[in-house]
Design goal:
6 helices, three-stranded antiparallel beta sheet, 27% strand
Length: 126
Amino acid sequence: MIYTYKELLGKYKDDYNIKKAFENKEIYKLEKGIYSDKKIVNPLLVYSKKYPNAIITMDNVFYYYDLTDVIPDKIFLATSSKSHTIKNVKIIQVYMKDNVLNLGKTLVKINDNDYVYMYDKERLLI
């Protein structure tokens, strides 16, 4: 499972117990402010947690729906045109107007218990 720091505080109660969990390899730091109980996690899950208002789009969704065999090397995230710039070399930010941002937004099951927001196939045609 993926956690924010605030969620870790809720689970472990204080910084001392969080530090102990790191030492015991119960949790791992994936990105600034993002943690997991697994050492390796799908990047789509990491960035969906880190940027909860963003929607996965473009090459990542094409690959997920088996519309391409090219594995994307960056994460494409659609955000509001009013949102702050995401300063991360692993992400390509696509700005959308608010009135069309959520058109085609779908909650997709990535694995057993994890879901992310992506655009559906119909939206990708636009």
